[in-house]
Amino acid sequence: MPLAGEDRVKLQSLQSFVAEELISFEHEYETLLNGELELLGQICEHLKQGKSKRFRPTLVLIASKNGSEMHPDAAFAAACVELVHTATLVHDDFIDDAATRRRLPTVNVKWGPAAALIMGDFLYTKVFSLLTARGMEDAMRIIAATTHRMSVAEMMQLESRSCLDLPEEDYFTIISEKTACLIAASCEIGSLFHPGLQHHRPALSAFGQNLGMAFQITDDIFDYRGDPKRLGKPVGGDWREGRITLPFIAAWRNASAPLKARLRKAMVAGPDEPRLWAEVREMVHQNGGLEYASKMAAHYGERAKESLHALGPHPQTAILNDAVDYVLRRLN
Amino acid sequence: MPLAGEDRVKLQSLQSFVAEELISFEHEYETLLNGELELLGQICEHLKQGKSKRFRPTLVLIASKNGSEMHPDAAFAAACVELVHTATLVHDDFIDDAATRRRLPTVNVKWGPAAALIMGDFLYTKVFSLLTARGMEDAMRIIAATTHRMSVAEMMQLESRSCLDLPEEDYFTIISEKTACLIAASCEIGSLFHPGLQHHRPALSAFGQNLGMAFQITDDIFDYRGDPKRLGKPVGGDWREGRITLPFIAAWRNASAPLKARLRKAMVAGPDEPRLWAEVREMVHQNGGLEYASKMAAHYGERAKESLHALGPHPQTAILNDAVDYVLRRLN
């Protein structure tokens, strides 16, 4: 049932469409996020405590849902996608030297950087190992290509750290390859299990790609604007970690030359210089950074909806449209 | 042609058996170890300079060699195995905080820990991505399971760092899962391309597993004994990085109680306390650590040769026996 009439689409409403499937997913994820070794087991338990919103598995399950039937591999595939997401977060937190994630200490802080590196490797290779052992070649191919693209984007992001003049195209490339592609993979993998959607794989992938762009842009807006629902993440985290995002890029081109010169000079001490964040935030708010980024998020949201036209009238269309509204209306 | 008559089997002699195939391998490896991004490209070039002995690809190619015919995928698979090996070294050097590898600065030192982490992820996922894109499902399954086992062993090794009372069984588990399993994978993957060896996959895998055990034990002996051919690696590196290996484990149980107490006390400052290495080395030499480890290496060498019995008279048997002699006679 479409939820477009509501002012704000809640994630729970989307998830109610696949409520039973999500229970199966939770069971699979609980089972798979495990390690035979004591230290691995401890870290897995810790990761389970910092529960995500299950956005990616929800998309896998929505795309795979065919009436009341559930493909036996769908929940398993959703768990694999979530494991990949968890692995990237563990490695990301190490790269960003982040201290907390979902209000808990990060693996790198609690067990040290070496354990964080190995833990990520453990989770990635577990997914590959599970998918190949189960003979899920299509899902494997998608996840292998996706994680590889993500690693290239990580390097690109590292290369462009604290680059105040980061071109907008480079920002879009980074978020496309780092965030959107796993959301695209989620939708595409889900469609593998739906007899009526299999031949729409490219459309589902394009939908996820555009949805993922909108998702990341809104996330990047929150980092400048603050959002009461994101209490686990402090505002300004992206800036302090040297991640130049769309609100900044858009505002920077509108900023006056003297302001630019002053901020450039202040940057010498590094982006985590305490007073700098207040100035940067002000610069972004005053120079239309948030408005521009919101406009771009809406643009990708529109493109996501357009990607669904290829499906024709299909039971999935309404709920996937709602997923777009959920992502965009988080801003309201 | 068997080389057992010689006192010391040279790696070049083994490699002459697959000379042409190794040229194809080098071409594949050169092509695959590449990154579209500038920073990725630079790191790839750096990694190419620190050339390995090509032991694992040599085994892939020996196992795959069927007369003068060469399976078109064999050199590609050998390159994938070498990429996995390279990825593990990049991550290992980060974990061990190593400064040099093959006389060159490590990636973590030259480009920083974040780049080292991403580079390893890039290489691993590249292999998975390449193998799945090429539809090489068997090789993919073997490599996925192998890299997963390796990550568990890495964590086990991290957990047991500087543990003076590391049980011998734990040491064997670590080297079996961390080193031997990739050598087993090399032999097994090679056999996939040989029509006469495909049904001997388990035997080839067992051969590689035992060979890999002998290989790691001899490597661990070199770290206490020194070896002029290993100039790129300083003696005592394992100890200083907290890696407790067989020569130490064996000697430690023979050491006198006062000596043990004294070393335990000295360890408080950590294994890289400068004077400690000289004492530990002396302890290992005086208490039969090297003899015991050599005996165990020979034992696994024997088991490797026995694993080949399943093949019956086969052109591969002689050269694989030579591979065992090469590994063991490095000690002479």
Give a brief description.
The first copy, chain A, has 332 residues and is mainly alpha-helical.
Keyword list:
homodimer; 332 residues; mainly alpha; Farnesyl Diphosphate Synthase; two-stranded antiparallel sheet; 16 helices; 2 strands; 70% helix; 1% strand; globular; disordered N terminus
Tell me what the structure shows:
The structure is a homodimer of 332-residue chains. With 332 residues, the first copy, chain A, is mainly alpha-helical. Chain A has a single domain, classed as Farnesyl Diphosphate Synthase (Orthogonal Bundle), CATH 1.10.600.10. Helices cover 70% and strands 1% of the residues of chain A. Chain A is built from 16 helices and two strands. Chain A has helices at 11-16, 19-32, 38-49, 55-64, 74-95, 107-111, 113-133, 137-159, 168-192, 201-225, 237-240, 246-254, 257-266, 274-286, 289-307, 315-329; strands at 100-101, 104-105. A two-stranded antiparallel ribbon of chain A has the order 1-2. In chain A, a hairpin with a 2-residue loop joins strand 1 and strand 2. In chain A, helix 5 packs antiparallel against helix 9 and helix 12 packs across helix 15. The longest helix of chain A has 25 residues, at 168-192. Residues 1-6 of chain A have low confidence and may be disordered. At the A-B interface, helix 3, helix 5, helix 7 and helix 8 of A face helix 3, helix 5, helix 7 and helix 8 of B.
